[in-house]
Amino acid sequence: MTMSFTATGATKFNPGPYRGRLVSLEKRYKMVTKDDGEKEDRPYLRWIFAIEDEGFEGKTLSLLSSTSFGIGPAGPAKGRRIVEAIFGRELDIGEEFTDADLFEKPVTLHVDNEKTNRGTFARIVDFTSADDLDETEMKKALG
Fold it and tell me: CATH classification of 16-70+80-89+101-142, choosing from 2.40.50, 1.10.10, 2.60.120, 1.10.260?
């Protein structure tokens, strides 16, 4: 019997803004050991975005965040910043939403390349509303 294989590789992303849409949001758990030695299953979120720019069809990028949507001394939690970018506005204190409210809405993903001991990988470093990308594109077109 003959076996068939396909060589794969990472998609090259130039640093900069990309248009994306949230296509999956997964709640996962990581076992951590607390200071008192007790083990705890700590939840976190994995956000998966489809990239919509030409030449990137079918490609996705993901990032992790805590399950917090609050505002602390260091500012808004990463999850809150993602949701505010998707909605294109700040969240009201006490506002409720579901994952279904977040899917398939445009957002601007700011991508950079991160060098690790396993190679160089595209990484989402920031996110802003889809309107921000439209303004950037308009400024480029006007020169």
Answer: 2.40.50
